[in-house]
Amino acid sequence: MARAGVSGADWKNGLGWIINKESSGNPRAQGAMTSDGRAKGLMQLKHFNYKGDPFTPINNIYWGIQYIKKRYKSIGGALSWWRSHNWYANGTPFHTGGSAVLGDAGLNEPFMLPNGQFGLSPNVPTLFPNLPVGTKVWPNIQDFAKKTFTNKSKEEDEITNPVFAVSDSGSSQINIEFNPVITISGERSNKESEKSVKQQIDEALAEQYKKFQEVLIKSGLIGG
């Protein structure tokens, strides 16, 4: 901090908060590939925001401070910007609209727009500007599968899932076709038959999710 010309508890605590959000304190952290390269190091800086080795903590923090002073003027300004954006490491059933940061827990976060389109965030903190009001976010793929593929109404005979638009960076997108149509037939005159229908739905959706996950693994978007 002294090298960068700043001092005090506000800077120390503020930098610690930003580093935790950006890299979880991992000096070797690298962000998802984008059109202008990967963000690197403790403060996840792009190549045009630093000189020297971005993985050396002191160097990364020095250039991070320079970036903060240039863009936000102060550590308070930087924190105000970060905190004004929604962080959804734990997901949300209803986004209130505006920008949001997904992937801030180091995991891919599935999300669903109000029009039914699905997406998947990178596994690093990524700003999604202007997410529509009502967007739903899950904290990870496992939570998405648990809450989505096992809670379908037992009254549904036919289920159609929309195309998944999977983002692999802040500026590009991979479209994955995921359009299973599942038809369930049978009597529903009693609870036993209703249970049987629900089991069929759960099993079919679980199989589709497995295939979906395999596609993500092969695409390199999630780990195997």
Question: Mind explaining what this structure looks like?
Answer:
The chain has 224 residues and is of the alpha+beta class. It is 33% helix and 16% strand. It contains 5 helices and 10 strands. The chain has helices spanning 9-23, 57-71, 75-83, 141-148, 191-218, and strands at 86-87, 98-102, 110-112, 118-120, 126-131, 136-137, 158-160, 164-167, 173-176, 181-183. The strands form 3 sheets. The chain has a 5-stranded mixed β-sheet with strand order 6-3-4-8-9, with no helix packed on it. The longest helix has 28 residues, at 191-218.
Structural class: alpha+beta
Oligomer: single chain
- Total of helices: 5
Give the SSE order as H and E letters: HHHEEEEEEHEEEEH
Poorly predicted runs are: 151-178
Shape: elongated
Features:
224 residues, 3-stranded mixed sheet, alpha+beta, 5 helices, 5-stranded mixed sheet
What is the fold's blueprint, element by element?
Blueprint: H1 9-23, H2 57-71, H3 75-83, E1 86-87, E2 98-102, E3 110-112, E4 118-120, E5 126-131, E6 136-137, H4 141-148, E7 158-160, E8 164-167, E9 173-176, E10 181-183, H5 191-218
Parallel strand pairs: 1-2, 4-8
Antiparallel strand pairs: 2-5, 3-4, 3-6, 7-10, 8-9
Helix pairs in contact: 1-3
Structure described in brief:
The protein has 224 residues and is α+β, with helices and mostly antiparallel strands. Helices cover 33% and strands 16% of the residues.
